[in-house]
Amino acid sequence: MHWRIVHKRHGDSCGASKLGIVRGLANKLFIEEHDEHASNAKGYENMVKKKFARPLPRVSSWQPRDASRPLSAAFEKQCKNAEERLLQGLEYESNFAVDSFESGIPFESLFRRELKQLIPQRYMVTDGLLLDRFGKTAGKCDVLLFNDFWFSPAKSPVFEDTGLRYFPVEGAYAVGEIKQTLSSSTLDKAMEKLVICHRLNRPNTFANRMVENRESDSCRHGLTNPLFSFILAGKIAKGDTFDALINRFFDICQKLKRLETPRALCVLNEGIVFWGYQRLGSTNEIKPALFFKEDLFQSVFPIRIGKNDQSPLYSLIQQLQLALFHTILAPEDLATAYGSLNEKIQTPSSPSIALPPDDEWIDRLLTPCGNEH
């Protein structure tokens, strides 16, 4: 585009009118030339678009791809990998113990480390002493799943990661006994520890508790805070079989109350046994027993899953997570329960030394709301 410059000549008597004519012609020529250029540019742009522009994508094809087959077994594979690492750690520890060398990380510590990766982070995984409000204890537990959001330890070590911590049994979701090798004698010791944990004083919640700090009603046909307990072993001792240990486990459980009964017996690379029940009115529907509501009023029976059917550790984590999902603990009055039992208080000698309620609150009692006051 070339601009046309028009100068007014000095002394021209008709300069103003001539200048106006010239300006009008210049504007007309500019508009015509600009329109012609714009038309040519538009045509060139359309030609380039037709020649080089990509066609619009077919958006109907933008669909999620099917990853159901690899993802359906992803968590099970993660548990299987954890089980293999535990077995490798157990073998390493056993070999060094035979040669009188210092062993590596203890088997129960390995399990706690793996367990932290397999359950939600809201659950504290640790070891420690479990005790009740009357000072009774079950001794040191290999694995504790504890609620450290609503509960605090009854006693913490002076220095971090040194010394045992004491935990109120009301704040425990689960307790586990970990054995390198399972025999009839080690099974008995593990069962004894778990049963004592169950026999600590742990007040039951009502059946329909919704959150930790609220009871929704006073229904006593169930509870929301049964303690989940389990035994996990790395291998079976020579001379014993898994079938024989299962039978011994069942025979001991027959002598226990329902809420004193350990929930699962798991041996890595071997299998697992836990409890199930058949729903009333159903002929073939078998469900895991949760010890919460319905199954408390029915008979439960052992369910066995072998290593060829499913990873034993994966089966244990399934049962544990199912219990964690349904469990709601009861933290009320813990500071008082684990404090001094001989508190003495003093009150004024005259009833006139008191703050009366506000009139606005008294007036509200005149308006019924459906609840008793």
Largest sheet: 9 strands, mixed
- Our Rg estimate from Cα atoms comes to 38 Å
The CA-CA distance between the termini, in Å, is 91 Å
Number of helices: 9
H and E string: HHHHEEEEHEHEEEEHHH
**Percentage of residues in DSSP E strands:** 15-25%
Instruction: Name the overall outline.
Output: extended
The count of DSSP E runs of length 2 or more, i.e. the number of strands, is 9
Residue windows where pLDDT falls under 50 for at least 5 positions = 1-19, 99-103
Would you tell me the overall average pLDDT?
A: 84
Helix content: 25-40%
Structural class: alpha/beta
Please summarize what this structure is.
The chain has 373 residues and is of the alpha/beta class. It has helices spanning 15-52, 68-72, 74-98, 107-116, 184-199, 242-253, 312-326, 334-337, 359-364, and strands at residues 124-131, 137-146, 166-168, 172-182, 228-236, 264-267, 271-278, 286-288, 301-306. Strands 1, 2, 3, 4, 5, 6, 7, 8 and 9 form a 9-stranded mixed beta sheet that branches.
Please supply descriptive tags for the structure shown above:
about 375 residues; alpha/beta; nine-stranded mixed sheet; 9 helices; disordered N terminus
Q: How would you describe what is shown here?
A:
This protein has 373 residues and is α/β, with parallel strands linked by helices. 35% of the residues lie in helices and 17% in strands. The chain is built from nine helices and nine strands. It has helices at 15-52, 68-72, 74-98, 107-116, 184-199, 242-253, 312-326, 334-337, 359-364; strands at 124-131, 137-146, 166-168, 172-182, 228-236, 264-267, 271-278, 286-288, 301-306. Strands 1, 2, 3, 4, 5, 6, 7, 8 and 9 form a nine-stranded mixed beta sheet that branches. Strand 4, helix 5 and strand 5 form a beta-alpha-beta unit. Helix 3 (74-98) packs antiparallel against helix 4 (107-116). The longest helix has 38 residues, at 15-52. The protein starts with 14 loop residues before the first helix and ends in a 9-residue tail after the last helix.
